[in-house]
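Catalogue entry: protein

Sequence with per-residue tokens
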Amino acid sequence: MPLDFSTVKITNAGHEKVQIWGLSDICYSCSPQYKGTVDPAQMLPFSIDGRWPYTLTFQVLTSPFVSQNVTYSYRFGDQGTYELTVGPGVTLTANIVQDPNTTWFPLLAALAILAVLYVIIPFFVKLFDILMDWVSDGSPIIVSKAASSTKVKDRVLSLDTFRGLSLSIMIFVNYGGGGYWWLNHSVWDGLTVADLVFPWFIFMMGVSLALVQDSQSRKKERRRVVMWRITRRSCAMFWLGLFLDSSHDGGIDVTRWRIPGVLQRFAISYFVNAVAIYWIPAIGSLAPEKTKLVTFQPTPEIEKTTRVRLNRDEGPGSTGTNCGDEFNDWVKEGFPTPKSDDSEGIVLNPDQMSNPGSRGSSVRSLANESLSSTKPSSDVTGISGIGINLSPREKTYFDALVRTIPEIAPYVFQWAALLLIHFIWYIATFSYAAPGCPKGYIGPGGLADQGMYPNCTGGMALYWDVSFFGINHIYKSPTCKSIYHTGAFDPEGMLGSLNSIFLCFLGVNAGRIIVKHKNPMVRIQRWAVWCVLLSLLGGSLCGFQQYGGAIPVNKNLWSASFIYVMSGTGCGVLALLYYIVDVCQWWSGAPFYFPGMNSIVVYFCSEVFQSFFPMSFQHDDSHEWELASDLIGVACWILLAFVLYRRKTFISL
């Protein structure tokens, strides 16, 4: 018997025929489905999905035109056997013939084993070091030329920890999630643990993109070189995704090759966001390429708005925390520490010195900009560089805005572009009707809505994918198929990619909080604010309920409420991990930061070798064995990531 299914035997002890209708409670707005008819003194067995409560309706035909009904709702459990007897007078008796399995016991046992392994893991690490020293006969371990020639710089370990945690759960879910329904994706509307990890990974990709862009802008790399690197990496991810989607039983069938996919979604989100932050100018730069440091004595008239003050109490040693030790290594990813002479002068262009009244040369704007950035970055072009004329009062307001929200104000044009992409999803989803579907339909189709729209799964999302890729080149087995009896639908389709692009940009915004703010507690506070605002926005759209809201939280569609909730919770988890791992250093992030540092290679290999031992092996169809198999598979890839980390081998596209 399959996992989470039970056998129900219906016995008719009466004198009339009994029709049986059934419906799982997870099938929202569905009509009961006919299961069969039981003659008097006969028995009818059938299987019922025990993951959710199930409602059986018994219709006793007392005459050709008269019937009496009795209903029975119960969550039948995992691999149990039940007997229901319909007696005279439309009475119902229920008996448990075989008790269902206890599904929570394997989880408790697995958690206990993992806790023991985590306690003794330092011993295994030490043993590994001794073994490596013995193998190398005391000589240094040989690593790759690239790894040995460059020193791995300090990193914000919470970022790698978050990325590795998401990746580990993603692999666990892809391998089966122990057979538990809440460790697999939602049927349609709603949210499970499995629904969190993919969008969190895209969110963290945006965070990393902001850090990399800041580092490259300070190195003043040529834009065409950076764009070539972005294009190459995006194409590589897209083609790796196509490679993973190309495997079918009996060989590759190009006529049924799925085009959308997980890595393809990564590639699209990364490429659009990278192009946006590198090519759409930001406002308020101090940094023309040819500059020199000058000192000046401000006149009393402008001294009120041009005084530059750097609070040296906000340096590396002042974190505002009560963690015991000073957090002296908050400067990560090469972020510079303010030097003592930063307040001695301001970077001015010679032309601006000769013509202080020209637009873009406001000393006030330049001085106040230094308050919003630790070091000038060439990723912004200045107000004059994009042809904007501001009055002195407007410049004062804008400078105050930059000081207040430096992660947003200079990037208003990038926000406008990405919000436009996001609003295209709203327009395409709710302003048009797919053929045979009502306008704005976002339901699962099939049995939903009393079966009125059987071929409308996802509405315009399915229509876009079928029109662009063809029905044979999208995902054939969506999560809604078994419950709602639907056809093909791709959760990584075109329309959802628009929202994933915006989700990635919200991650870029979270990364800019690291870049623009030096105090760790300020970073945590701002992430917490974004967590609350975005989560409330997503909850408001769905009405804080699984069904019935204006825009339900839906991972299959990557609905607007879904990405708001995912980015909000992403900010919350990032703030928590940053406080625990980087600020207070209560936890090193192990073992999750190992796969976080080699995320692409770990994910790719986990998909390619999923059917190989020990990632997969034959076992009994039970939660115990399913959970053990999936955890062993994840542990193998964490171990591989650990070996790569110890050998200082970091593979990227």
Summary: The chain has a mean pLDDT of 81.
